[in-house]
Design goal:
By secondary structure, the chain is an alpha+beta fold. The chain has a single domain, classed as Glutamine Phosphoribosylpyrophosphate, subunit 1, domain 1, CATH 3.60.20. The chain is built from nine helices and 14 strands. The strands form two sheets. An eight-stranded mixed sheet has the order 5-4-3-7-6-2-12-13. Strands 1, 8, 9, 10, 11 and 14 form a six-stranded mixed sheet that branches. Helix 7 packs across helix 9. The longest helix is centred in the first third of the chain and has 24 residues. It is globular.
Amino acid sequence: MNRKAFINRSLMAISGLSLTPYMKVSSRALSGSRTSTAMVISTWPHGIAANEVAWEVLMQGGRALDAVEKGVNVTELDPKITSVGYGGYPDRDGFITLDACIMDERGNAGSVTFLKHIKTPVSVARMVMEKTPHVMLSGEGALQFALANGFKKEELHTEFSRKSWEDWVKKNNYIPVNEHNHDTISMLAIDKNGDLCGACSTSGTAFKYHGRVGDSPIIGAGLYVDNETGAAGATGVGEVIMKILGTHTIVESMRHGHSPQEACEEAVQRALKKVPDLRNQPVYFIALNKEGEYGAYGTDSEFSYALYTKEKGNQLIQAGSLY
């Protein structure tokens, strides 16, 4: 054997040995459920209505990116949902400020934070992704960008949101409280081409400090998509999710062979190590991998998620929980 042939055979043998442990892990029995077609998964009961619109986009052959944007828009525009978009709970000074992000199958991402007067922040986030060299715009700059690109300046308050703030001021004297749920909408979709995309939108913690931004617009915290592996979305107390980069943690766990369900459970356990009092600072996750397996897990039994598949239609499912 000449020297070149010997080196080539040696490299092939080393490469085969190095891949063996990973292949064993990734081929083991997975605990998550599986679907073989396009699908949509989103957080909370309001995800049911959002899923309907997203599914229609997918069935028309649309991109997962279009599906998650249009689906999340449904929640953003619903004034009865007080944790997202129009009619969301204001901050402690009475302002409604919105956060959102979106991520496509190519790894592109867009985000807006502390955005006022725009009812569909996830659509502004998509425009940031597609029309600028940046990932994130914030505050007045984000609003200026939105208005320059055709969005209308609108009132985000409803009669209910304004009265809720007035009552809160009288009751709490500007001391922030944690009595309201954190029902961010996170949505993940896989389209007929097998591509993954995701989006996330929120009005943030009710009566938060003015200027507070949570995990929802942070790539890797509130949302992460890797088209080679999978995608994850978060909801709950953003301060905890940011400390563990929850969605990036989940996708990396799936990359190393764990099912979406296992990866979500692992993320909650990691949060527990960082924040022992997790009962009072709940976190919840959804995940979807490239093979169409999905999972969800949270701190407590309050969490449910909406899943739309060809096999079972659009259904609300109770997620597993730590407590």
